[in-house]
Amino acid sequence: MSITAGSYTLGPESGRLLVNTTRTGLGAKAGHDLTIEVTRWRGDATVDAVNAAHSSVTVEVDAESFEVREGTGGVKPLTDSDREEIGRTLRTKILHTDRDPTITFRSTRVDGTAESFHVEGDLTIVGVTRPVTVQGVLTEGRVHGSAAIVQSRWGIRPYSAFFGALKVSDEVEVRFDIGLVPKQ
C-alpha cells in the first residue's frame, strides 16, 4: 500500500510512541524490562512519494508524559507504586524535566520509499543534540518503526540500583505505530 504525498499531523490521537528498556547486571532478575508510553507528543511529516529526499519529519515530546505501561520479568510483579516511583525517577534523575521539559527530533535526511524508509535526524534529549537513525515501514496504512538510543551518548547515566548490581541497559529502543492524519 502506498501513501499519498502531502503533509500529515502526528500525535497520540493517531498512534503510539513507546520506549522499551531492558535490564542488566548481576541483579537483573530482580528488575523489570519496561514498556513506557509517551502520552503527550506532536509531530509533522511532509511526504514526497516520488522523491523521499524531499520528505521530512519533526516530533516534539513532553518529557513529563512518560508512563510505565508494562514491566516484564522480575521476581515480583510491577505494582502501581513501582510505576509511580519509576516515573518520578525518570523525570527527576534521568530526564531532568525541570530544566529540559521537551525532547525533539528533526529529520536531516530521508532515504528509501514510502513503504520502507530510514530517516536520519537530530535528537535533543536533556539539552544535548546527537544524530540518530530511524527505520520504518508502511503497512496497512500505518507507519511502524524504531530507533536505538544509547543513553550515554546524550550524557544520560542509565538507572542503576543495589550498588550497580541492577542496571537499565544503556541502549533503549524507541518504537512507533502511527496512522498518518492529513493536515487540514
Structural account:
The chain has 184 residues and is mainly beta. 8% of the residues lie in helices and 54% in strands. The chain contains 1 helix and 15 strands. It has one helix spanning 80-94; strands spanning 6-10, 15-21, 23-24, 33-38, 41-47, 56-62, 66-72, 102-112, 116-125, 128-139, 142-150, 160-161, 166-168, 171-179, 181-182. A 12-stranded antiparallel beta sheet has the order 7-4-2-14-11-10-9-8-6-5-1-15, covered by helices on one side. A 3-stranded antiparallel beta sheet has the order 3-13-12, with no helix packed on it. Strand 5 (41-47) and strand 6 (56-62) form a beta hairpin. The protein is elongated, with a radius of gyration of 17 Å.
Give the biggest beta sheet. 12 strands, antiparallel
Order of strands across the main sheet: 7-4-2-14-11-10-9-8-6-5-1-15
N- and C-termini, Cα separation = 23 Å
Instruction: Work out the helicity level.
Output: under 10%
- The topology string of helices and strands comes to EEEEEEEHEEEEEEEE
Output the radius of gyration: 17 Å
Oligomer: single chain
Number of β-strand runs: 15
Shape: elongated
Give the rounded overall mean pLDDT. 92
Count of discrete alpha- or pi-helical segments spanning 4 or more residues: 1
Structural class: mainly beta
- How big a fraction of the residues is strand? over 45%
Question: Uncertain segments of ≥5 residues (pLDDT<50)?
Answer: none
